[in-house]
Amino acid sequence: MDDSKSWNGSELPCSDDDRLLFNSSIIITLGDGAKTRFWHHNWLDGHAPRYLAPNLFCLISRKNRTVKQELRNNNWIRKLQTKITSAVHMEEFVSLWIRIQEVHLQQGAQDTITWRWTGDGKYSTRSAYRIQFRGSLTSFSTELIWSAHVENKCKIFAWILVQDKILTAQNLQRRGWPHHQQCVLCNGPLETSLHLCLCCPFAKGSLGSDPLVGELHSASAATPGEPHRYEIMVGRGGNESAEIRA
Fold first, then answer.
1. What is the Cα–Cα distance from 113 to 169, expressed in whole angstroms?
2. End-to-end CA distance of the chain
3. What digits encode the pLDDT tens for the residues 33-48?
4. What confidence score (pLDDT) does residue 232 get?
5. Whole-number pLDDT of residue 235
6. 216: part of which helix (H) or strand (E)?
7. Fewer CB within 10 A of the end CB, N or C, for the chain?
8. How confident is the prediction for the chain on average, in pLDDT?
9. How far is the C-alpha of 186 from the C-alpha of 2, rounded, in Å?
10. Which region holds residue 101: left if phi is over 0, alpha if psi is between -120 and 50, else beta?
């Protein structure tokens, strides 16, 4: 960290998810504890105390103090001793206290941060951007299309479909061409590649017996909480994914 910067010490505009991603991306080696935040950073056995003792964290009023400030004269204990009122508080306090007994600061040595996602351990914007999408894209094998036991015209149609090049109402809208505001088959939402292939009730009934469509449906199956794989193929807004364009 560069102490000369005007924004040094100010509160960071980030959410809990941002903090979790950051904490999982760094390795902190304690020196004198002057730059590591006691509650927020993962300096204690690779964890941040706020997640080891979430109920104690809620009791603290000054949450941005450093490790050095809180360990000096056991300040973190003094601030909690009149606020612990339940068995859960006591359990978290004892667990945190035991862990902290193994910590020894090194006077005169600065804290160091190692970035996990680069070979030299130094932060890069590229690596930080890429790690945010790790696990969010599912690969799609084009063999599902070209090996299907159907006529070639069906394979070509399916390939154009996953490229999102079919002139659906959405693509007509992008080009400024006349189009229907609703699906003409089911009177549902604006016709997109995703709707035409998987969501439209009329299309489901008409194409459900087609073997190629069946394979695409199988390949598109998503587990709860994950994006639909067909959404990844053509993009939630209809944009091509990086995998397909590649």
1. 51
2. 38
3. 999 999 999 899 888 9
4. 41
5. 44
6. helix 211-219
7. C
8. 79
9. 60
10. alpha
128: Cα separation from own chain's centroid: 11
Q: Which tens digits make up the pLDDT trace of 105-135?
A: 998 899 998 998 998 999 898 998 888 887 6
Taking 90 as the threshold, does the pLDDT of residue 97 lie above it? yes
Does the pLDDT of residue 10 top 70, yes or no? no
CA nearest neighbour of 174 among 159, 190, 158: 190
Structure tokens at 101: 């007994």
Q: Which two tokens stand for residue 116?
A: 């996990």
For residue 196, CA distances in Å to 53, 100, 162, 189, 201 come to 49, 58, 11, 10, 9
Please name the residue ranges forming H helices in 28-100.
49-52, 54-59, 67-71, 75-80, 87-100
Evaluate the CA torsion angle 92, 97, 100, 101 in order and state its sign.
negative
